[in-house]
Amino acid sequence: MKRADPLTRGYHLFRRGKYAEVLSLLEGQIFLYRDNPRFYHLLGIASLRTGDAGGADAYLNAALKRDPGSTEAHLALAAACLRRHKTEEALQIWLDILDDDPRNKYAQRGLSLLRRDPDGTELYRFTDPAALAKLYPAPKRIPSPKVPLAVVAVAGLVVVALAGARIAPGVFAGIGSVVDELAARSPWAPGPEREGAEYARVDDEDELIVTDAEQPRELDQQPAAEGHPSSEPAPEPSEVDPDSWEDPPSPEDLHPHVEEEPRYRLSEVEVSEVFDRMREYFNEERDNKTNREINRILYSNAAGAVKERARLLQAYLRTPSFVDMEDNFAYEEVVGDPYLYENGYVRWRGRPDNLDITEQEISFDLLVGYDDGRNWKGTVPVRFDEAVSVDPDLGIEVLGRVQLEEDGRIWLEGVAVRLLRLGD
């Protein structure tokens, strides 16, 4: 018997009250369901049932970003707001729902609760996940996927052709145009390119690499004190306007370790192949892999103008969250070739050690893999410039940006952290 897909299995686990198992199953499937609002909705209410209102808030907002009209997601978000003592936000959500559906029993129940308890003295009862569940509906059954009509039509045309039907050539031409039209309307047809994708291209006429016989200093190879590159652009003319580098993040700040001797020697064909991958990943919004290919160019023997294009593309990459993080890199990958992953993002589990809290930052050493107290892989310094919740006695998961010391050792610039639940 064919095994159900992860989202359907998650639905059945939820119905059986196994909320932590829902989260463990689905949190690793974000790439598969990244555009599916039901996926984020199920993660959101599963988080609510485990008492994680902050996680629920993030997942439910992700669901509403993809389906702004979802009443079920709005109701669950109102419950998460109530759990976090944001009563004004919860009230506004319920009022908006009742404007469209005056008989909505969940919104009526929430509004009645606030009317009976305007001072919030009894709202503590709704910190219990079971009580909070009365304010939002359980998820609807996930429908089985249906084959799109366009696919059925194309399949029928293929069957006719394979049957050897004697159809006039003009009719076959007409069939071809119909197939092309159906393909263009298909949900799998390539969408429009992202803003900035023009920098993920190189022309055949471009000079792509610097050979050993050539000795021009590239933009990222200007001499500077203590071996660091100059923050000023190269004086050589370029087709790309250097003024665009002034926008944050500064390319020179992102890559202070580019060396005069290239780490990766590429042929012109390989440079073109890297840019092809770069463009594909970028348009698929897989920014972590895009950044890796950018580094492959920046630390290579690619020509200066080619590196400029890679740098400009990097300014369009987005900072991920726990909700939409994709293409995580393992600890072993990153320490094996840290320059390739510089400024990329990782989600690593472990346990904090040597916690240090100052007025400017919170720093600690992450014992990677040691969240279960058994599998220590290595130690990585982590720094946050804002207050975060860290317990040295509990496992955590850190989302951070890979940074390099002058000697190539890595540390993480903290983006987010979460405490691991029992059974994660």
Description:
There is one protein chain. Helix 9 (about 150-160) packs antiparallel against helix 10. The chain has helices at about 5-15, 20-25, 35-50, 55-65, 70-85, 85-100, 105-115, 130, 150-160, 170-185, 250-255, 270-285, 285-300, 305-315, 330-335; strands at about 345-355, 360-370, 380-385, 395-405, 410-420. The two termini are about 30 Å apart. The protein is built from 15 helices and 5 strands. By secondary structure, the protein is an alpha+beta fold. Helix content is about 40%, strand content about 10%. It folds into 4 domains: about 5-135, Alpha Horseshoe (Serine Threonine Protein Phosphatase 5, Tetratricopeptide repeat), CATH 1.25.40.10; about 150-185; about 195-315, no CATH class; about 330-420, Nucleic acid-binding proteins (OB fold (Dihydrolipoamide Acetyltransferase, E2P)), CATH 2.40.50.140. Strands 1-2-3-5-4 form a 5-stranded mixed β-barrel. Strand 1 (about 345-355) and strand 2 form a beta hairpin.
Average pLDDT number: 77
Q: What is Rg?
A: 27 Å
Q: Termini separation (Å)?
A: 28 Å
Unreliable parts: 144-176, 182-190, 213-248
According to CATH, the homologous superfamily of the largest domain is: Tetratricopeptide repeat domain
The CATH architecture assignment of the largest domain turns out to be: Alpha Horseshoe
CATH class of the largest domain: Mainly Alpha
Using DSSP, what is the number of strands?
5
- Oligomer state of the chains in this structure: single chain
